[in-house]
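Predict structure. Chain length: 316.
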Amino acid sequence: MSKIKYNIALLGGRGFVGQEIIKIIDKHNFFDLSSIYSSSKAGEKINSYHKNPELKYSDLNKNLQLDGVDIVICALPNGESSKFVDKIEKIDNSIVIIDIGSDYRFDKNWFYSIPEINNISSGIKRISNPGCYATASQLSIAPIKDIINLKVSCVGISGYSGAGATPNDKNNPKIINESIFPYSLSNHTHEKEIKKHCYSKVSFSPHVADFFRGILVTSHFSLSEKLNVEEIIKIYDDFYTNNKLVKIQKDPPLIKDVINTNYAIIGGYSISDDGHDLVTCCVIDNLLKGAASQCIQNLNVTFGFEESLSLEDTFN
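Prediction complete.
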């Protein structure tokens, strides 16, 4: 792909993830936003996009205008993207579409991609961006997948931004104030996602806590080989040696260390006395590596750029 600039239409610019995408593309050398659609902010200026200070939200409820558009990012609530994909394909089937929601994560015609794991290549036209919990869990599982014995147990704690901007129990201050709220403790959609794309014998239990952003996933493994902490760390180091956005450390990582960054940190490695039971911790910013920046990371690779292009900065 030889173009120097690629034009993007963003569907769903009002939400938390949409706002992060706008900030990232504002700093990207090769991606520009030509239009941003919202069902509630049509006509309003987009103050966070400095490349084009006159750009205003377009009405998502009206016909999409995609002339000259190379990429469509769907940053819509789960179940909404599929309503627009057929329309986009009828306008121009050559447009690259990436969906941040869950609509296509189990569709064989869409490429599901955590770039560090799934080896996305240039030229892919339909990309399904992974879920936030599923990202942190799979980053923890993938390096040792071949030496796991039996079931993996993952416990996730997320800030309430993961519940979206629309009021619900998982972002209700009366419920989560100074507390942790467990929900969907079995058969969560991200558990199904992990089983489909990484490791089939896994249980996942999510919780939402009284902070805005960030995720911690603690994973428990039974190993088929006896290993010590140093050997485990080397396995993770070797697996992610060429990936700039995954950091490996011995100490337990803290959510505050990844807030407003595009990095995942995996650490806290603890081994049982017999060398067969392992615990790891992974932290990411759910709005960035768990959504917006992983989207741009996937697009970077798809269009032949370095995967971490414009993603190694901290966003405030």
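Summary: The domain at 132-285 is CATH 3.30.360.10 (Dihydrodipicolinate Reductase; domain 2).
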